[in-house]
Structure prediction request, 342 residues.
Amino acid sequence: MKVNSNRDISFKGFYNNKALKKSLEFAADYGAMFAATTTLALSTFARPAAIMLAPHTDKENKKFACAKSLASSIAQFILTFLVATPIGNAIKNIDREPQKYLKNETIKNLQKTSKTLVESKNYEFATQLFKLGSGLIVSIPKAILTAACMPFILQKIFHKPKPHHEDLDNNNELSFKGKGVEKISKGIGKVLDKKWLQNFSEKYKDSNFVMHIIALTDALTTGTFIHEVYESDNIEERRKKAVMYNAGISTALSIGTGYLFDKIMDKPTQKFVENFKKANKGQPNLEKQLLGIKVAKPILIVGSVYYMIIPFISTILADIADHDPRFDLPHKKPKNKKDMKA
Prediction:
């Protein structure tokens, strides 16, 4: 094996890997779905393992934390697929035929000095608001569905008996009606035509918007989940405290450490980008793949921290809070006269 004197060892084979490039293009086109897929993969094995390895903690609290992790990832994957896929396809329509969906003035304002519209940072930022924002759209229904699915997972996987509530309302259904990708493309085009959005894109195109959207989505999801658990009749009252504190602590730690590790990884990521550019110079989808790196970086960092490191810490802290009367939850107000008599 011959090695150059300048020790410039090429990793071109890795940077040209088809699976890697397809994954990056997927992240660029369907950012929220990329996050949901990563979450599903990590939460199925890594997070439950981290939770169960936490020492000196209540075994039942661990089961509830694992059930929450599984229910959350499954709900996120299903809901995100239903919402993010048509949005991603709609924006790909605009990528291919911008003149069909956007005004000439909009194209000019978003493209700026870039060779094509899709290579523009302004357009990249504006369209990622929709792609990643789809995760924000499903955050509240995801949290509601997570709380609703926890008892089912506890029964089927951990063989927990169902709490005794005879008059539960099982008629709640979530329905999603597709309006057609073409209509969505036209709707997004009308929003992109708005001057305020173009100005917003110009102002924040260089911001860490991917990380900001992830943080906002996680905060909104956790807040809704905590409320749903507190109000739920299907989750044991004595287990709610640990579940709620675990969720809140996990999210707070993941957002804080996510920003920290995202900053730490700036230089290694930039080095990766430079090598990737050299290995794929002149390739037609290079700009999209580079965008995929930008989108995937914070998702993988937050996902790894949230599902592999933080569960170990948050499970311990939540168990401590569960046994400390200073962190007791406020009593729920009775929902009806029947509850008051009980």
About this structure: The radius of gyration is 23 Å. The CA atoms of residues 135 and 174 lie 17 Å apart. Residues 1-9, 164-178, 337-342 have pLDDT under 50 and may be disordered.
